[in-house]
Design a protein that fits this description.
The chain is α/β, with parallel strands linked by helices. It is about 30% helix and about 40% strand. It has four helices and seven strands; from the N terminus they run αβββαβαβββα.
């Protein structure tokens, strides 16, 4: 499977629920696929204009293709993701949670190299609260996909959606 087939596969899985776009720049980084899903729930009294409370749950997906990926590239990618949280998430009094699913895709990675990076991906954790949680929080799911071998690695949060992004 090549990268264009993989992007088409992920696009077809996400397009029913997400707003999907290709070649999108987020915080100065060009992502091959960007998808966003925004859910808003609210409770009102008598009329929809009299809102008692509301909350928003958002999910974002960022897919980036790398010709070659190693520890240095993965570290750089995760650091940029952490910086991108401020750019992507808009905390407010109605914001409850945002989840950013970041997928690093590579074509040909030797299985030994994949095993080394798999441990690093599995140990990755990121959670950020806004205003002590009163304006919600954000989590990052991190996945690593090797297309030729069909291997997928995910952190603890990423295991929830690993099937969707596996090659």
């Amino acid at each position: 499977m090549d990268i264009s087939q993989y992007l088409d596969l992920v696009d077809s899985k996400l397009k029913n629920s997400f707003d999907v776009s290709r070649n999108t720049v987020v915080n100065g980084i060009n992502y091959d696929l960007y998808a966003q899903f925004k859910l808003r729930n609210e409770r009102y009294v008598l009329t929809k204009k009299a809102v008692v409370y509301a909350f928003e749950n958002n999910e974002y997906c960022l897919v980036k293709h790398f010709q070659k990926i190693d520890e240095r590239v993965l570290d750089s990618f995760t650091e940029e993701l952490k910086k991108s949280v401020e750019c992507i998430v808009s905390p407010s009094s109605e914001h409850m949670s945002s989840i950013i699913t970041a997928v690093a895709v590579t074509d040909n990675m030797p299985p030994g190299d994949f095993e080394n990076l798999k441990g690093k991906v599995e140990r990755f954790r990121y959670n950020k609260g806004f205003a002590f949680g009163f304006k919600g929080w954000a989590d990052i799911r991190l996945l690593l996909v090797s297309l030729d071998e069909g291997l997928t690695a995910a952190n603890k949060k990423g295991k929830e959606v690993a099937k969707v992004y596996s090659a």
